[in-house]
Design brief:
Oligomer: single chain
Number of helices: 19
Radius of gyration: 29 Å
Helix content: 40-55%
Largest sheet: 7 strands, mixed
Strand content: 5-15%
Length: 568
């Protein structure tokens, strides 16, 4: 229920000198709820500004649409001159999947966005990279052939015309040019710090790993003449890492050489794989990688994948809290080697969460949560507490799994317990989400009751809203029940198979899960009883009663097992 869908958009606007124009464009982006503007990078020589913003897909597409329209109003391509290739006021507009969404889904959104821009802003659009309709147009350079100056001829050529908004070259096209709208994978810019000052050594490592590799030479592999194929092209010896570009350089600020790398597809070459390979190739040349420097922002999954990778190499459980996994990644790759690495300033999802937090119950201290519950306001109430009890039950089962995974003499079973811990973490995360979801469901009912009822139309709308909110208020605790019931198999397994010193923790976890299921079930029944659709209400109540009975049996069996072990 809480899988956040995040897309990054990095439009390039053909204006890098007049910041008043750029501000008007970025103001359009910031006006859209759910979007965060991350970076504005103007270049005077290129006369071009790169803007980065993120958010949920629909919000990002709306912000992009508004920004393209404003750029079309303010930037006259007939007057534009700069060092960078360009063909439009908004030159390129890529959508990039960050989390909860695929590249294919972003490609579909990019095509829809291009069509809308052409129809409503009358700005012709080419679709490129993953959004391309034609294979050759996956290459941006093909879409931008001849740049702005060639549009006069290309617009009238059916084979070279844009995908959307094709028409004879007119004053509108002359002013706005064309925009390339596409979808591409997330690109990570990363520098690997070396314990050397030698740029030549750093370059050698870069050539070892980068996909392009190095030229094949006659005789001496360093000074020999590059070999050519029959067509006269230089023969290359590929490097070991696909989807990477890299060079070596010396950084005066740090007094060290680095391998500077762009990872153009993190699905093909994840960051931790690149790190390990650079370390291997550096060691082969008598050099050590002392740390890693991330340039710009990264998706959370990059660090999660890295942290899990290094934990698995150590035969340690991966079912630990998310921030602990990220800390392992930071330490393993030396991300704080040159300066402290702060996830809240480098991880896209955390930056968005910082903007979106608005008094969530799960962000309170234990004491604050208890005090908030004790106040005379009806929410948070029993449904919220039930979800939290379920989260505590899952947390206890997960704790036993992690203790068992690291128990001396049980090394051959670490991965079994790690899988249990991963399951427990997922249950805990979902139940913590339901803590606030239950309170928000109650607030929706209160909002519906507060709607006006002066006319028959208002009364009908109010009644419909109340019924909708009431149904939701029954469905949320039912989801709590469905999730909390999954805590019992975890606690049973940990009582029977886990560290015997923690058997009572597994038992208490089962008790907490029982309280969660029964407490949430009560909320299902009371809310469902207010529904006018009695058939639907009965179905909800029946499922709740079935789950309540199952929870009673599960908890009783686990408790009897635990007590039997204690009395043996």
């Amino acid at each position: 229920m809480n899988n956040q869908r995040i897309v990054e958009c990095v439009p390039n606007f053909s204006e890098g000198r007049d910041m008043s124009i750029i501000q008007q464009i970025t103001d359009c982006i910031k006006s859209v709820d759910g979007v965060r503007l991350l970076d504005v990078d103007p270049g005077e020589a290129t006369n071009r500004t790169v803007v980065t913003f993120v958010g949920e897909p629909e919000a990002v597409c709306q912000a992009a649409f508004l920004a393209v329209g404003k750029a079309g109003e303010l930037i006259d391509m007939r007057q534009h001159h700069g060092a960078h290739p360009r063909m439009g006021a908004t030159d390129v507009l890529p959508l990039i999947p960050v989390s909860g969404i695929t590249l294919e889904e972003c490609a579909a959104l990019a095509r829809q966005l291009a069509e809308r821009i052409a129809k409503e802003h009358h700005i012709p659009c080419y679709c490129y990279e993953a959004a391309a309709y034609r294979e050759e147009r996956r290459n941006l350079a093909v879409c931008r052939t001849g740049e702005y100056e060639a549009l006069h001829d290309r617009m009238g050529d059916p084979d070279q015309a844009p995908d959307y908004g094709a028409r004879p070259f007119d004053e509108g096209v002359a002013r706005t040019g064309c925009t390339a709208v596409g979808a591409r994978d997330f690109l990570i810019a990363v520098n690997f710090n070396l314990n050397t000052t030698s740029t030549r050594r750093a370059n050698a490592i870069a050539f070892d790993v980068r996909e392009k590799g190095r030229p094949k030479r006659e005789g001496n592999p360093i000074t020999g003449k590059p070999m050519k194929d029959a067509a006269g092209n230089t023969i290359m010896l590929p490097g070991t890492l696909k989807s990477t570009k890299a060079i070596g350089w010396f950084i005066d600020e740090y007094g060290i050489a680095q391998v500077s790398m762009n990872i153009t597809n993190i699905n093909v070459t994840p960051l931790h794989v690149a790190f390990d390979e650079v370390c291997r190739c550096a060691q082969n040349r008598g050099i050590r990688v002392t740390g890693t420097e991330i340039v710009g922002l990264i998706p959370k999954r990059t660090l999660i994948e890295a942290g899990r990778y290094f934990l698995e190499k150590q035969h340690r459980s991966t079912g630990i809290p998310e921030r602990d996994i990220i800390d392992i990644a930071i330490r393993s790759m030396g991300l704080s080697d040159l300066k402290p690495f702060k996830p809240e300033e480098k991880v896209i999802e955390y930056m968005l969460e910082a903007d979106q937090k608005n008094g969530l119950l799960v962000d309170l201290s234990v004491k604050g949560f208890a005090e908030e519950t004790s106040r005379e306001s009806p929410a948070p109430g029993g449904g919220t507490i039930a979800a939290y009890m379920g989260a505590l039950g899952a947390a206890l089962g997960t704790m036993v799994a992690n203790l068992s995974s690291h128990k001396a003499g049980w090394d051959d079973r670490w991965d079994t317990f790690s899988h249990y811990a991963d399951k427990g973490q997922a249950l805990e995360k979902e139940l913590l989400h339901l803590v606030d979801e239950d309170t928000q469901a109650f607030n929706r009912i209160m909002a519906a009751f507060g709607m006006p009822k002066s006319s028959d139309e208002e009364k009908a709308a109010r009644s419909a809203a109340i019924q909708s909110a009431t149904l939701y208020a029954a469905q949320v605790p039912l989801q709590t029940m469905r999730t909390a019931i999954e805590v019992f198999p975890l606690c049973r397994a940990m009582a029977q198979e886990g560290n015997p010193n923690s058997i009572t923790d597994a038992g208490v976890g089962a008790l907490a899960a029982r309280a969660a299921v029964l407490g949430a079930g009560m909320n299902v029944c009371i809310n469902a009883s207010s529904l006018k659709d009695k058939e639907q209400a009965q179905a909800l109540i029946q499922e709740a009663k079935t789950l309540m009975a199952q929870a009673q049996t599960e908890e009783q069996d686990i408790t009897q097992y635990v007590m039997g072990k204690l009395e043996a």
